[in-house]
Design a protein that fits this description.
seven-stranded mixed sheet, globular, mainly beta, four-stranded antiparallel sheet, 0% helix
Length: 124
């Protein structure tokens, strides 16, 4: 069983930055593919970013590419999401997810383990 705990959310002005962290326990990151999703108010949860096992290739949603960066620290069993140049439309609950598959996916159904989420609010 894998447990995921996110942190790092908060309130920030447009143009600002945040770094989200997700600590995994129960399995090592080297055996998992990791992803970040978000749910904005009144909307369905959507894919944000993913990274393959062992910090392999990463992929981003068009809406965040060039502004957000996903990375891992295997020594800390932690995956990060660096959020730069934040916009009000980035306001959402951000979720960390883990998959047993060797390659990442943009589909929620491919992720077996989920964190509780961390709130990011961007003011204009």
């Amino acid at each position: 069983q894998v447990q995921l705990v996110e942190s790092g959310g908060g309130l920030v002005q447009a143009g600002g930055s945040l770094r989200l962290s997700c600590v995994a326990s129960g399995r090592t990151l080297s055996s998992l593919t990791m992803g970040w999703f978000r749910r904005a108010p009144g909307k369905e949860r959507e894919f944000v970013a993913r990274i393959n096992r062992n910090g392999g290739s990463s992929y981003y949603a068009d809406s965040v590419r060039g502004r957000f960066t996903i990375s891992t620290d295997n020594a800390k069993n932690t995956v990060y999401l660096q959020l730069n140049s934040l916009k009000p439309e980035d306001t959402a609950i951000y979720y960390c997810a883990a998959s047993d598959a060797p390659y990442g996916s943009e589909y929620e159904s491919r992720y077996r383990y989920w964190g509780q989420g961390t709130q990011v609010t961007v003011s204009s």
